Amino acid sequence: MEMGGFRNQGTTKVETQFALTAQDDRPKRVVLLIAGEIVGDNKGDADSEEHGRELMLHSLKSLGTEKAVPDEIILLHDGIKLLFPESECHDCWKPILDREIVVKACNESIFYLGRMPEDPRIVCEDMSSLLQSLLTADRVVRL
């Protein structure tokens, strides 16, 4: 018997783990949905909110450098605030946009806040268009 082999009388086929998780099984279009300034639910205390802000900052920084990234990022409600200069996350958007990840901002939220994103590469769309984008995605991840 060869080293690493086994004796089999049947037709069992042995495949590596890589073959079991082939690229074909990956989602075709992944959308990241951000509806707030923090990751997780604010438990009503300052420590929880600060931790949620740190998690959001680290998440957005990683999108500028990591291999696996979403095809689109959709920002709505308070998530729009992450685009503005006073947000700690403001500087994270340039590397994300430079990687040609589509970033979409909700028009209704922009009008509600009364401010436009500074970078012209950010696509501003109505909520109905964003909903269609979410409904047609293969996978939606929410922060």
Plain-language structure description:
The radius of gyration is 21 Å and the shape is globular. The longest helix has 18 residues, at about 45-65. The protein has helices spanning about 15-20, 45-65, 95-100, 105-115, 125-135; strands spanning about 30-35, 70-75, 100-105, 125, 140. The model is unreliable at about 15-20 (pLDDT under 50). The chain is built from five helices and five strands, in the order αβαβαβαβαβ. Helices cover about 30% and strands about 15% of the residues. The protein is of the alpha/beta class. It has a five-stranded parallel sheet with strand order 4-3-2-1-5. Strand 2, helix 3 and strand 3 (about 100-105) form a beta-alpha-beta unit. It has a single domain (about 25-140), classed as Hypothetical Protein Ychn, Chain: A.
Write the layout of secondary structure elements.
Elements: H1 17-20, E1 30-34, H2 46-63, E2 72-75, H3 93-98, E3 102-106, H4 107-113, E4 123-125, H5 127-135, E5 139-142
Parallel strand pairs: 1-2, 1-5, 2-3, 3-4
